[in-house]
Each structure stands twice: as C-alpha cells, then as structure tokens.
Design a protein that fits this description.
The protein is an alpha+beta fold. It contains five helices and twelve strands. A hairpin with a 2-residue loop joins strand 3 and strand 4 (47-50).
C-alpha cells in the first residue's frame, strides 16, 4: 500500500520491447539505492510495479520493471521517453503514519490536464491551480474535498465541474514532483479513492437503500 506522498523523482533510462513482446521500463533512482530488493513494489507515476534486476548490467541506483498488458492499456507508462521525470514511492511500512490517503497503485485510467496555472507572479513560491478532465466513469467517483491520486500524488479536490476537477497545488508539491514538467494536454494516471468504489458498489446492489446522492450527503 502507498499513501501518495511522493518520496522522490526518478528519470526514465529506457523503455524497450523484449523478444517476448513484454515492455521493460528502466528507471534511474539514485536516492532509492539500497532501499529496494528484487520483487519489491515501487509506485512509478502512481502505478504499482515489481522491481526486477536489469539483465545487461547491475546499477545500484537503477531498477527495471516489466509492464503487463493491463498496465499498458490503463496507464501512460508506455508514452514515457528517456529523460522523462517520474514520481516514485516505496510501500508504506505497517504502523507508519498515513500522511496522504490509501493508495493502491492500481490505476483506474488516464486523464488529460486542462490547465496548470500559477496564482501569483513569483513562480518559486506561488500556489498553482490544476484542472483535469476526467472520463464520465472516473468523474462518478469524485466529490469536492475528496481525495484523488494524480500520477501517484495524493491530492485534494477543491471543486468539481461536470467531468472536470480543480485541485490546489502548493509550491512544494509542484517543485518536488513531476508536475512542473507537465503541460496542458499532458496525460496523467488517475486512481480514485478506493472508499468511493466500495460505496458506489454497495449503492448499486439490489435492495440497497443507499443512493449516490445520499452517499455524497454523508461525505463519502
């Protein structure tokens, strides 16, 4: 399990297709050197991947991960190019404080950045306002002041306008993650709050007395 609090960023070294057809992503992450071992989970832009050793070399500051077809279909990872900055998070140890929210690393789908604009002229210290357009399926799982994961970052939704959401970004988050490299039109990975999925599933069951409206009224 993750919390959506990005520990560090890494850089894409390569994305290549193996003879088997599997796509292998290699990431440079020197600040994570010595903190992971073969088979560990690492969230890359919010996608839970399994770290494997690189076949052609050993480098303590790099790890590789094979992308399953489901991962290819649901995420933006195959659009990454060498040099791209990615958000990285190791799993949260049992008993640790949950500073963000419960993040599984199971991406629901992708969305597109509508805009990311500063609120003041001092770009080093200003807050930013992020607008993202969601698909109707993803938009059904969001509410104002609810949690959402964007490229692995735990964020709070400030406003919902039809299928668009608006998020306030503090300077630290903007500079410490890949957000400062993204532009209008950039695709991002989205994981909605797992609690909303269970709540809506419960509301849809035969004989359920809960409705989407009642769930929102109760703060789910």
């Amino acid at each position: 399990m993750f919390t959506g609090l990005i520990e560090t960023t890494g850089t894409v070294v390569s994305l290549k297709t193996l003879p088997s057809g599997v796509q292998r992503l290699t990431i440079s992450a020197p600040t994570l050197a010595g903190r992971w071992k073969l088979g560990d989970s690492i969230a890359v832009n919010g996608v839970c991947l399994t770290a494997i050793n690189m076949e052609d070399e050993f480098h303590p500051g790099r790890f590789a991960a094979d992308l399953a077809q489901e991962t290819v279909a649901r995420t933006t990872l195959t659009a990454l190019t060498p040099g791209a900055l990615v958000n990285l998070e190791l799993p949260t140890p049992s008993g640790s404080p949950l500073g963000g929210h419960v993040v599984q690393g199971h991406v629901d789908g992708t969305a597109v950045i509508v805009s990311l604009v500063p609120l003041h002229s001092d770009l080093d210290h200003t807050d930013w306002r992020l607008r993202i357009e969601l698909s109707p399926e993803l938009a059904a799982h969001v509410i104002p002041q609810g949690s959402i994961t964007v490229d692995g970052i735990s964020l709070t939704i400030a406003a919902v306008d039809a299928n668009e959401i608006e998020i306030a970004i503090i300077p630290h988050t903007y500079h410490a993650t890949n957000l400062h490299t993204l532009l209008s039109g950039s695709p991002v990975n989205i994981e909605t709050d797992v609690l909303s999925k269970y709540a809506l599933r419960r509301a849809a069951e035969p004989g359920a007395t809960l409705t989407v409206e009642s769930l929102i009224a109760r703060g789910y």
